[in-house]
Amino acid sequence: MHAGRFLEYSLHTVQDLVHHKLLHLIEKQANSGDRIDLQVRCLAPDLPKVPFAKAFEEATEIISFRFFVPPFVWQPMKFFGVGSEQRLKEAIRVVHDSAEKMVTDQRIELSNAGSLDDRFDLLSRLIQIKNPDNQGEKGLCGIKMSKTAIEVPPKGGFSFDLCRRNEMLFKKGVQPPSYRKTGTTIVGLIFQDGVILGADTRATEGPIVCDKNCEKIHYMAPNIYCCGAGTAADTEAVTDMVSSQLQLHRYHTGRESRVVTALTLLKSHLFNYQGHVQAALVLGGVDVTGPHLHTIYPHGSTDTLPFATMGSGSLAAMAVFESKYREGLTKDEGINLVCEAICSGIFNDLGSGSNVDVCVITKGQKEYLRNHKLPNPRTYVNPKGYSFSKKIEVLSTKVTPLKERVEVIEGGEAMEE
Amino acid sequence: MTKQQANWSPYDNNGGSCVAIAGADYCVVAADTRMSTGYSILTRDYSKICQLADKCVMASSGFQADVKALQKVLASRHLIYQHQHNKQMSCPAMGQLLSNTLYYKRFFPYYSFNVLGGLDNEGKGCVFTYDAVGSYERVGYSSQGSGSTLIMPFLDNQLKSPSPLLLPAQDAVTPLSESEAVDLVKTVFASATERDIYTGDKVEIVIINADGIHRDFMDVRKD
């Protein structure tokens, strides 16, 4: 119940603010032609930011706690002012006080300086426009309440704002959403004339196969390919990004990309993200200095090896490599060995399956053998097939013609490309 | 001080799926033969189906050590019954016994998801489906195990009349013939194998009818 009313209240507040204040403000700005900075910097540097933020977070936590216990638990607590409800009261008081202080400070500045034209933040603008009245105070406090009112320097990368909330939810037993991992077998080996990479084609979401034939060997450069294991989104994003960076580098230098360049770009990116980007890669290619094969771990460490395996099926594949690998393999022997290793992963590891992809890179040429082996055909197909009758009962029909919203103006100018 | 959590669990999940379908005068019970733990395969050739009485067969997925213990308890109780009553237990009687045995361990359950299939006293097919602590119900068809979420909707769609989706169920058993039911079971396992990593290798299909019990095997994907 309270969730619904809260939503309603927030909606009304926002509507109010937008219709009565924000739109006027933007209209005024549009007419005057000034630039307006909507990045809110409403906190003066001297204000105690820390207690405000802390109190705000605490209040959020305690309110979320209300959702986990029945009303007859927290309502008496609120009435008697005990336990978490008492802390909530205190936290709300701190938040309100800080917000009001900020607003009054701005007003004092307004009365001292005469105008706040040189302060381009949203709050100053709003103070200037509207008449000082009680309702306005609440509205301004409402803007303050939003987390974006807190001065935050723009930063890239990950935002860890919700980590505390997530931890608390996890402790209460709420499962975090799962992401798709490739639960994989990827391998690479160096043979006589270059490098051979191999991968299986199964993508899993927990115990379910979500893609029976996905591509795990990613293009980096015409002479460099990279296999990826771990979170599918991470391997895709990281290999695409470094592939673009290599292309730019090629334009810049006018030379063929080197494998160590890709290696350094990948490892520094992964290290910067301290292992949160869960991509385990096998990078292989042939450049002017010869054939190279590297493994890259999610935290950013690398190995340079003559043969390598990664993923959940890496042990099964490595067992094959350790028994049968030798230096100076020919191309066919190499391809067969890679297929054997991947098949070992496919049949012995539950996270890997379906087909074998192979990529052979030699000096000046590459062969991408997609689905080189298909050792898992579908077994039983009923020759008669199955019928799925459309037994959906139509209970009632209501047709609502949509009003035409587009006006077609005849004889307009042609759009420029 | 935060509550101490155990860092050892007495349970493990060995995966697998089982299915049972009841017909007018037969019953088909099937399960895959893969036993796994984590991401590894322990064996490709493990039977999850156990014959409890001459017209009663149980298929169980979950933690196979608990399943083995459960089967032993039921076998010994059945032997006692035979000595006391001078006859075999009927399928509904075995159904009740299984439910009681499971509930007996309500506070340290058998991690075992069972389907019981067989012929009742009139010779009609009957299937009983259980949860881990003994709640059971007589149904026309059922599936349990890691692939059950993939299998059940398909069975609901194809075996319409005993389906509880058309409340109330029009028939207690499916009107399909025995060979059609076996075909359905084969298709269902081939499909579940495609998408569930814990189901695969081989499928053991057991058919119970008036002539007795007949066992068949089918190969499926091994990856």
Automatic annotation (TrEMBL), chain A:
PROSITE patterns with a match to the protein in the record: PROTEASOME_BETA_1, PROTEASOME_BETA_2
Signal peptide interval: none
Gene Ontology CC annotations of this record: cytoplasm; nucleus; proteasome core complex
Group of enzyme by EC: hydrolase
Subcellular location: Nucleus
Assembly and binders: Component of the 20S core complex of the 26S proteasome. The 26S proteasome is composed of a core protease (CP), known as the 20S proteasome, capped at one or both ends by the 19S regulatory particle (RP/PA700). The 20S proteasome core is composed of 28 subunits that are arranged in four stacked rings, resulting in a barrel-shaped structure. The two end rings are each formed by seven alpha subunits, and the two central rings are each formed by seven beta subunits. The catalytic chamber with the active sites is on the inside of the barrel.
Protein name as annotated: proteasome endopeptidase complex
Automatic annotation (TrEMBL), chain B:
Pfam family, one: Proteasome
Major place of residence: cytoplasm
SUPFAM superfamilies linked to this entry: N-terminal nucleophile aminohydrolases (Ntn hydrolases)
Localisation per UniProt entry: Cytoplasm; Nucleus
Entries under InterPro entries matching the protein: Ntn_hydrolases_N (IPR029055), Proteasome_bsu_CS (IPR016050), Proteasome_sua/b (IPR001353), Proteasome_suB-type (IPR023333)
GO biological process: proteolysis involved in protein catabolic process
Cleaved signal peptide residues: none
Alphabetically ordered keywords of this record: Cytoplasm, Nucleus, Proteasome
GO CC terms in record: cytoplasm; nucleus; proteasome core complex
Source organism superkingdom: Eukaryota
Gene3D superfamilies recorded: Glutamine Phosphoribosylpyrophosphate, subunit 1, domain 1 (3.60.20.10)
Subunit and interaction comment: Component of the proteasome complex.
Role played: Component of the proteasome, a multicatalytic proteinase complex which is characterized by its ability to cleave peptides with Arg, Phe, Tyr, Leu, and Glu adjacent to the leaving group at neutral or slightly basic pH. The proteasome has an ATP-dependent proteolytic activity.
Annotated family: Belongs to the peptidase T1B family.
PANTHER family: METALLOPROTEASE TLDD (PTHR32194), PROTEASOME SUBUNIT BETA TYPE-1 (PTHR32194:SF2)
UniProt-recorded name of the protein: Proteasome subunit beta
